[in-house]
Every structure is written in C-alpha cells, then in structure tokens.
Write a structure and sequence with these properties.
By secondary structure, this protein is α+β, with helices and mostly antiparallel strands. The protein has ten helices and twelve strands. The strands form three sheets. Strands 3, 4, 5, 6, 7 and 8 form a six-stranded antiparallel β-sheet that branches. A four-stranded antiparallel β-sheet has the order 10-11-9-12. The longest helix is centred in the N-terminal third of the chain and has 17 residues.
Length: 358
C-alpha cells in the first residue's frame, strides 16, 4: 500500500464514522462525492471499491468488525464472449459505532443533570461523547444552558476521580482538603477548605476503598486511621488530592467489615451517606407508598412483617441518622415503630419543625 493509499483508507474510515450509522448508509458514489467535497480528492470508483474491500477484509479477519455492508449482484455482458455474467459489489456501508444513539443519550442526559460538573466541563465532555457517533446523532446540546448555572464550583472533580482510582487500585492512602460553601462579608457565595481551630487548612488523610454514586453525587467510602468506622466524602467537595506512598489500612480491619465491604448492603443502609451506626427499624406506611419505599431501600434488604388492607409494616436495617431524615421527609405517611430511642428522636424533630412555623 502506497502512502497515498494509506491516507485514502484513513479518509474512508473517517467518512464512515462521521456520515453513517445503522440508520444512515452510503454507497460508493456517495463516498466519491464526499471525498471530492470535503477532502478535495478526486478518486475513481474502482479505487474506492478496492480500498473498501481492503478495509472490510482487515476488520473481518481481525475479529474487530467495524464496517457493515450489503453485497449487491449485478449482471453484465462480457464483450469478448458475449455472455451474460454476474459480479458482486459492496454497497450500503455503515460504521458500527460502539454506542447506540439511545445509549449515548442516556450518558449525556446523566451529565446534563449532574449537580457537580461545572457547565464548561459538561460541554467539553458532551462534545467528546458526540464524536463517538455520526453527524446524525442529536444530543440536545442546547439543553445544557437550562440547567444549574456556574457559581463557585470545584473544577478538580475529574482529577480527584483519577487520583482516587489510582489510590484504590494500588491500595495507597490519599490526602486532600475538604471544602464547604460560605457567604463572605460582601454576601458572595464562596467555596473554601475547612480549617482547624487555629484557622489552618485541615488536611484529611484517608484509606480509600470505593467510589459510589448516591442522590446525584459521587462519594468516597473510606476510613480515617483515627477512627474505626467507615466515612463518606463527596468528591465534588474534595480539592488538592494527593496519592501517598503509605499503604492504606485493609478494609477487613475496619469495624463491621471483617468479611470485606458488602457494597449493596452498605448503600441500602446509608441512603443519605451519613456516617454512624445502623439499626433495625420497624415502620408502617400506606401501600401506595411501596414503590417509593423500594426505590430508597432496594428489594433485597426489606422484610415485610405484617399487612392490612391499606398498610404495610416492614423492617429495614438503616443508618440511624438517615432514617431520622427520611422519616421527616415522609412524616405525613410513615410512622416509625421501633427502636423506641429513634421514635423519641423523630418525635423531637417533628416538634422542633412545628416550632419553626408557629
């Protein structure tokens, strides 16, 4: 293959990737026109046919099929023998993209609705995803301006994810600053790192185990050597992260994790990602609330202990503080029955909430 032919093969693959998908196919004549219009190359159909056959042969023999096509049979008269003969030609080419339009729409919509990615980074990321499909793909990019505007935002999110991925894979500790929002003297909302009592920026040194998503945010599940439990930190509030040379504490040395981290169980118990103990909670709610109940606590961690015509009584194991917040959210429909200490705390929360409106 000459240098010019190798460039032509690259151009042909680029044309297929940009102009075609499973719903938009092209033939050799259309390829010839695109080469002329967009690349300024005048190529005869015979050359296009030979190079498309080369591309098809390469991918079909490398177990990485990227081009689909149809074989069209045509008849012609052999001028030497005057007999009618049949020949085959390739047509209806289209590129086999890794993602379908529906899959890309799902990924892009999740980015559009992200509360933690600044709009500039969202736009760049969506642009990269668009290039994974043809020009016919419509990602509804214009919708990005209808979502949350940029105030003070953490632009280190992707760097944080990359460093945590490295630390978790190599079983190393990490250090970082953890930030909070603050209103300054000019009533401006600012994003600042947390400090200790002396006003010095606090450095968090953690044993990282897992990155998870909950309630529209990324969280780090980790442990601080000073304590013997698991903690959760939002990734969009982490800055200045560093992967340390020191080995992290094995997860089995954390209290309650002697058999390793059971992630589905942990997420079901920590619906709001609060730290602290989990308790067995018995509660009663109307049957129409069942779908919401399952959305929050999953299907594998609920025990239904009684039911009437209109109500269900269930038992779940959940973080105590999370259940207090959840019970307040559904206070008009849900009644927590036990443990009694939790019932007393929720009753006090409701009393204080009522005082705010008196």
């Amino acid at each position: 293959m000459t240098y010019d032919e190798s460039i032509l093969v690259f151009n042909l693959l680029e044309i297929l990737q940009k102009h075609t998908d499973e719903n938009h196919k092209i033939n050799q004549t259309q390829i010839q026109k695109i080469l002329d219009d967009e690349y300024g190359r005048s190529v005869v159909r015979k050359t296009i046919k030979e190079n498309m056959e080369r591309i098809i042969w390469h991918y079909e023999n490398s177990s990485r099929k990227k081009v689909n096509y149809k074989i069209q049979k045509r008849n012609y008269t052999n001028k030497k023998t005057n007999e009618v003969e049949t020949y085959e030609t390739y047509t209806d080419f289209h590129y086999l993209h890794k993602f379908s339009h529906g899959e890309l729409r799902l990924i892009i919509d999740s980015i559009l609705f992200s509360k933690q990615i600044p709009s500039g980074q969202r736009e760049q990321l969506i642009g990269k995803l668009e290039n994974l499909s043809s020009k016919h793909f419509n990602s509804r990019m214009g919708h990005i301006q209808t979502f949350s505007s940029d105030g003070p935002r953490n632009h280190e999110l992707f760097v944080t994810i990359e460093n945590l991925d490295e630390a978790i894979s190599t079983r190393k500790q990490v250090s970082f600053h953890y930030n909070k929002y603050h209103v300054d003297e000019q009533s401006n909302l600012v994003f600042i790192p947390q400090t200790n009592r002396d006003g010095i920026v606090r450095e968090y040194i953690m044993n990282p185990y897992q990155i998870v998503t909950a309630n529209g945010h990324y969280y780090l599940i980790c442990n601080n050597d000073k304590y013997n439990n698991l903690s959760h930190y939002r990734l969009d509030r982490i800055t200045n992260i560093r992967v340390l040379d020191t080995a992290r504490k094995p997860i089995r040395k954390v209290e309650g994790q002697e058999n390793g981290l059971n992630l589905p169980k942990h997420m079901a118990e920590h619906i709001y990602m609060f730290r602290g103990e989990s308790v067995s909670v018995k509660l009663k709610f109307p049957k129409p609330l069942l779908s919401d109940f399952v959305d929050w606590f999953g299907t594998d961690h609920i025990d239904f202990v009684a039911q009437t015509e209109g109500e269900l009584t269930a038992r779940v194991r959940v973080n105590k503080m999370a259940m207090r917040k959840w019970a307040l959210q559904y206070a008009t429909n849900v009644r927590v029955l036990s443990p009694e200490s939790l019932v007393d705390e929720i009753r006090e929360d409701i009393r204080r909430a009522l005082e705010n409106y008196e």
